């Protein structure tokens, strides 16, 4: 990669190319004087009685992994000056032919030009510094290509130079890569290579049943491509990050027991199929299916038979309820909702307290069905045919 001296290095190489070619060009015979080459701006070109001059115009930890280079395209104006009629056209034509025959600055050419610039008699300190440029070592070779200038562009350029218009050709030098030398963090060499090629058979879930389950019940997931090389590599992942081995695995069906760690509400489930390779072989996450959903219902554990208006009804709920989940108790057609618990509270709680307001309508015996709703998922009630008359349970009586 080049350093900051590369810009001056390109100019020095172009000037050296033209100067070196002048020695055997025979132009001194054509124009009557020995031409010279300068890299000065147009307004500083002194045009005397014999003046002929050509003018080229970081990773996640913040550690540096690479030093991206600054890529530059350099634009040059090649102009010819001369005291006599046709001098400019002759010199410009010769220089354009030379650049046409050398459209790529080879590494040998660049290094020879830079060395010659640095060691020539009378070289200034700037020329010596430019001659030390690492331009010859950059990954990309500098390429020269002629550019077309519109009449308007020419009209604007020369007044900006504060100089009279001269016969000019525009060139683009691309690309110059500038990069400061900085320490970087590199990976250790690869010692062992393990490559595994498998067909792209991503698991696909087509159906989940039943759509509503409770903790400890079994889900049946149907689809395709659930089994890879080993059934032990098939796992069931839930949307909270919980990952469990299934109870049974077939290519088109997986059965899994709902874990106790899940919160009630709408939950997501997917099939993860690992792949094994390496020495020794170990599992790597390979293919994930689409995410399917089901409803995880809460369950009231040991529901109370009675409560009283104006008191607090405490229920034990499974699974435990998250502190930011919405919770409500439903007694018949009446409901009482409680606010989410503060951030200082435990992340989950198996008990919920529902204050029954003074205007809560009492529920006489034999009571009304008791339910709890967590994030839209309601606990089940079942019809007990042994009661006379048959009634839904669990039930609760609310006294005045």
Please report which band the strand proportion falls in: under 5%, 5-15%, 15-25%, 25-35%, 35-45% or over 45%. Answer: 35-45%
How helical, in percent, are the residues? 10-25%
Mean pLDDT across the residues is 85
Name the structural class: alpha+beta
- Residue runs with pLDDT of under 50 for 5 or more positions: 49-57
The N- to C-terminal Cα distance equals 87 Å
- Individual helix count: 6
Report the C-alpha radius of gyration, rounded.
42 Å
Order of adjacent strands in the largest pleated sheet: 1-2-3-6-5-4
Oligomer: single chain
The general outline is: elongated
Biggest sheet record: 6 strands, mixed
Q: What is the number of E strands?
A: 27
| Domains (count) | 3
Compact overview of the structure:
By secondary structure, the chain is an alpha+beta fold.
Per-chain topology:
Elements: H1 6-22, H2 27-31, E1 36-37, E2 53-56, E3 70-80, H3 87-101, E4 104-105, H4 107-119, H5 125-130, E5 142-147, H6 151-161, E6 168-178, E7 204-209, E8 212-214, E9 218-224, E10 234-238, E11 243-244, E12 248-249, E13 253-257, E14 265-277, E15 282-288, E16 292-297, E17 299-301, E18 306-308, E19 312-322, E20 327-331, E21 334-338, E22 348-355, E23 363-374, E24 377-378, E25 382-384, E26 391-393, E27 395-399
Parallel strand pairs: 1-2, 8-16, 18-27
Antiparallel strand pairs: 2-3, 3-6, 4-5, 5-6, 7-9, 9-13, 10-11, 10-14, 12-13, 14-15, 14-16, 17-19, 19-22, 20-21, 20-23, 23-24, 23-27, 25-26
Describe the structure.
By secondary structure, the chain is α+β, with helices and mostly antiparallel strands. It folds into 3 domains: 6-178, no CATH class; 204-297, Sandwich (Immunoglobulin-like); 299-399, Immunoglobulin-like (Sandwich), CATH 2.60.40. The protein is 17% helix and 38% strand. The chain contains 6 helices and 27 strands. The protein has helices spanning 6-22, 27-31, 87-101, 107-119, 125-130, 151-161, and strands at 36-37, 53-56, 70-80, 104-105, 142-147, 168-178, 204-209, 212-214, 218-224, 234-238, 243-244, 248-249, 253-257, 265-277, 282-288, 292-297, 299-301, 306-308, 312-322, 327-331, 334-338, 348-355, 363-374, 377-378, 382-384, 391-393, 395-399. Strands 1-2-3-6-5-4 form a 6-stranded mixed sheet. Strands 8, 10, 11, 14, 15 and 16 form a 6-stranded mixed sheet that branches. Strands 18, 20, 21, 23, 24 and 27 form a 6-stranded mixed sheet that branches. Helix 1 packs across helix 4 (107-119). The longest helix is centred in the first third of the chain and has 17 residues, at 6-22.
């Amino acid at each position: 990669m080049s350093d900051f001296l590369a810009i001056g290095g390109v100019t020095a190489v172009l000037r050296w190319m033209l100067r070196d070619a002048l020695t055997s060009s025979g132009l001194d015979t054509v124009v009557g004087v020995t031409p010279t080459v300068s890299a000065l701006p147009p307004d500083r070109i002194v045009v005397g009685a014999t003046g002929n001059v050509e003018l080229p115009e970081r990773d996640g930890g913040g550690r540096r992994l690479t030093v991206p280079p600054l890529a530059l395209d350099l634009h040059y104006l090649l102009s010819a000056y001369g005291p006599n009629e046709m001098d400019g056209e002759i010199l410009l034509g010769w220089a354009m032919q030379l650049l046409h025959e050398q459209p790529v600055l080879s590494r040998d050419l660049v290094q020879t030009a830079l060395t010659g610039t640095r060691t020539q008699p009378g070289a200034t300190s700037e020329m010596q510094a430019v001659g030390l440029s690492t331009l010859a070592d950059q990954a990309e070779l500098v390429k020269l290509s002629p550019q077309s200038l519109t009449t308007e562009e020419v009209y604007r350029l020369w007044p900006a130079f504060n100089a009279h218009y001269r016969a000019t050709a525009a060139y683009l030098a691309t690309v110059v890569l500038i990069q400061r030398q900085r320490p970087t963090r590199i990976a250790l060499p690869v010692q062992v290579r393990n490559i595994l090629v498998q067909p792209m058979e991503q698991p696909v879930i087509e159906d989940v049943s039943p759509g509503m389950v409770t903790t400890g019940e079994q889900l049946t997931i149907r689809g395709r491509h659930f089994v890879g090389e080993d059934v032990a590599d098939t796992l069931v992942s839930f949307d909270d990050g919980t990952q469990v081995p299934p109870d049974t695995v077939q290519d088109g069906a997986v059965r899994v027991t709902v874990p106790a760690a899940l919160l009630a509400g709408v939950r997501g489930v997917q099939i993860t199929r690992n792949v094994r390779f390496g020495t020794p072989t170990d599992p790597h996450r390979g293919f994930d299916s689409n995410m399917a959903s089901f409803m995880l219902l809460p369950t009231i554990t040991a529901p109370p038979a009675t409560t009283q208006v104006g008191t607090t009804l405490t229920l034990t709920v499974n699974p435990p309820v998250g502190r930011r989940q919405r919770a409500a108790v439903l007694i018949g057609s009446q409901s009482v909702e409680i606010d989410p618990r503060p951030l200082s509270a435990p992340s989950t709680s198996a008990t919920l307290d529902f204050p029954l307001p003074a205007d809560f309508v009492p529920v006489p015996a034999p009571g009304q069905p008791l339910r709890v709703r967590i994030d839209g998922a309601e606990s089940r009630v079942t019809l007990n045919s042994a009661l006379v008359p048959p009634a839904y349970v669990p039930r609760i009586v609310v006294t005045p």
